[in-house]
Design a protein that fits this description.
- The structure is a single chain.
- The protein is mostly helical.
- It is 66% helix and 0% strand.
Length: 160
């Protein structure tokens, strides 16, 4: 891919993953925005036994940002901050400090994913795995909607 075309492609991919995660969008809240105001108590609330809570969705999203970044860079498995993969079993209690740490992990994984996408420019990639990068953006948007739904269900449960 020629340098100008590669630069344009990388710029577009960064715009897409950033809009899905933390930039202003036309479609409503992005993933980070969907977490605004969520307390630790809200994050561990489940709509029903066996259903995911917001905390699990956040760790799941962070994990898949890690997976895509790792694949883009050709890194070995096993370096994610939390032991396990995909969906993490979480205790039913969470302090506000732990919740801040878990949201910071999501932010850090997004930052590192961006660096990996920018790294494709420096590597002068011949073929960019766009479907994987689009996929991680779509994943964020999907889970932003899921979190919004969980928040509404939680608010309804609080009202009784």
């Amino acid at each position: 891919m020629k340098n100008d075309a590669l630069h344009s492609a990388i710029t577009l991919l960064l715009q897409i993953i950033d809009e899905a995660y933390d930039r202003r969008t036309w479609h409503g809240p992005n993933l980070k925005g969907s977490l605004r105001g969520v307390t630790a108590k809200d994050a561990v609330w489940r709509p029903a036994p066996g259903r995911h809570n917001i905390r699990e969705v956040v760790l799941h999203a962070a994990y898949w940002k890690y997976v895509v970044r790792r694949k883009l860079r050709g890194e070995a498995r096993g370096s994610f901050a939390i032991r396990g993969s995909n969906w993490f079993g979480c205790p039913e209690s969470l302090t506000e400090e732990e919740w801040r740490h878990e949201r910071a992990l999501l932010n850090e994984e997004h930052r590192r994913l961006r660096e990996a996408v920018v790294g494709l420019l420096h590597a002068r990639a011949r073929k960019i795995p766009t479907s994987m990068i689009f996929g991680v953006a779509f994943h964020d948007v999907y889970h932003a909607g899921q979190i919004r739904l969980l928040r509404r269900l939680r608010a309804k449960a609080k009202r009784g």
